[in-house]
Amino acid sequence: MALEARGPATGLWPAFERVPTLLLAPSAACAGVALSIVLAPELEGGYLLFPVAAAAIVSLVRGARAGTLTSVASFVLLAWAFHSAAGLAPPQTRPDLRLLFFAAVSIPVVAVSDGLRRTFRRVEQRRAAAAAREQEWAALATFGRRALATAGVEPLLADAVRTVGEALHADLARFVPAPEGGAGLPAAEWGSAPRTEHLRRVRAHVRLGTGRAAPCGTIEVYARGRLRFRVEEVRFLQTFATVVGAAIQHVQAQAHVQAKLEFSRAVTNHLAEGVCALDAAGRTTFVNPAAETLLGWSEAEILGRPFHEVVHPRRDGSEPFPITAALAPERMGEDQEDTFVRKDGAALTVAWRAAPIEAGGERQGTVVSFRDLTGALRARHAERLLAEAGRVLAETLDEGPTLARIARLIVPDMADWCMVVAVERSGELRRVAIEAADPARLEAARELLGNYPIDVGAAHGVGRVLRTGEPELLTDARGFIEEGERTAPYRRALLERIGGLTSFIGVPLRARGRLLGVLDFATSESGRRYGPEDLALALALAERCAFAIDNARLYREAREATAARDDVLSIVSHDLKNPIAAIKAGAGALARTAAPGSIQARVSHTLLRASDRMTRLVSDLVDLASLDAGRLSMQLQPIDAAEVAAEVVQALATVAEEEGVALRLEPLAGAAPALADRERMAQVLSNLVGNAIKATPDGGEIRVRVEARPRSALLLVADTGRGIAPEDLPHVFERYYRGSPARYAGQGLGLAIAKRIVDAHGGRIWVESEVGRGSTFAVEIPAPEGDTALAQHG
To answer: ω into residue 177 within 30 of 0, thus cis?
Structure first.
């Protein structure tokens, strides 16, 4: 077992290794022969085993020469023993045969033992060589890691010669700069040797760059007591020299980059953007003051640390450090967004860009510039929120549902709680909307709020905003309830129900100088704290909500006023019909009995015209109210617009004649089909012709013309009156408009009603006029599909 465990290279028995061969061999022979003499009676013929074993052991320990010497000594001693009085050989045996047998056995045993010794030594040498190579390459790897962190060439070379000397077990190792390529490189030496000419030497050239470059120096290793260096040691030295060359390049490049960074420091110190420089391994080598401020770290705390550990100290998802992938060469120069983590743990949203730092055509590092996007993102978020709020507020004029949707828009995007309180015209306070991020807490809060009125005298909250009309911001809402407040117990119970209060904002809802309510929102479980930017957003949102509330109330009031007007018109039209009918009947009877030209005839005629105007006015007011309410009844059917025009002209011919105006209908060959309500079209045309009669002076002329077009019927009413001023043209179809100052008789309802009726038919109405030359009103009504009208009126 000892032979297997230790092997011959280290000695089977160390004590025997130190014994001289001339002493060991005879001693082993004497021991073997002595054992043979002592044990011969018991072993009979096997006593020769001991001298043979002694020769084998000596051969295994010290080699074939020592084993052979032991065999010779044993042979001499055995010969002496056979022929002496020792009685080693029995009388019937021949001693010379025994000696020949011993010689024949011991010679191959010695040879075999020596072969085993050589085999064991080779195995052990291979083990030792493998262990040495492992130690050498481990030393090389360790040196490479240290070289990356070394700041100067001189300490790098000192570490290099020390490492190679220890790895190769040398007495002396040194770096000798080359006369040409090594200019500026210092010499380095490790170990000591008084005279190197008697030492075994091995050396390797150190080159900067590719293998064809001129050497910048030589690493020389000296060792005493060696015939030569192993091939593996030479190869290791050559590889080590290559690594040293690369390390020198790295250190020189780092120094070059550092010099550039020092120059850039003065340029970047006053930039608002953060700037960081990284070496090839991603460690931070430079930061400007803006980067220190944005990240919250000092320069001393950042330098030397991997950049991804500075900005991403926490792992996020499956990718441990997102910026590591973003710094890949193929993504250099891209504008990218990321969320960095400050020293205090706060998130910092940034826009950043990276660019390579190159020297000699090779990348030596990276420069990263970044700027804070928090303000821009906050503004972008505010714009989105306000735009969405504007869309919601514009969808309906119903105050309650609209404000409830606004509250849901704010929660949970901006708050954990939101409440809208409206101030009615009577001064009553009404909670219009309440929303919460936690539905379970919302129901409890609504129940509690429903049982208690709003405390206008409270030191903070909705009551304070209602009382002062000023916004309130509580970044830290721990003092939201003050001791001695009348409603303090109730408010504390409310805060317990909603999970406490972290931060609070309350803003007034104002429109046209009136306080319409309060919009307030708060945070609790999310832990968010509001600042001035949040207050500004709340004020902008409150402004939009206030205008929406005001518009909703104005719309509601307008609808109420319209309903009241319709009621009045209904009552008035109903109550006036009978008196007007009575006046008209009496005037008609008086006209029939009065003599022509008498006072009674003139009075009766005046009463009839006044009653007709009153009837038309009541009818116009009722029609206008019906149009506003969308209740104007119409029965669309194919009609002949020319027939309607002829009826209207015939009905108003007497009126035109009395005013001294010639009213003519231009003839039309055939029909002018239109899809319309016959009575409403007659009403429109009567309004246009009646207005023309009023606008045309005595002796003037009014011409009515109807044209049949492929898809419509066109009605034209042209007069020779005074015309319409250009500034009045855009307003002639507005209700109650009569020009400024009033240039036209009437109430200003006829044209407004005519336009509304034409619009309801899907047609259009317009006017062309020139002052002093008259006006032309045109009405275009769609024609029915097919030839229905033509068949009916053909």
So the answer is: no
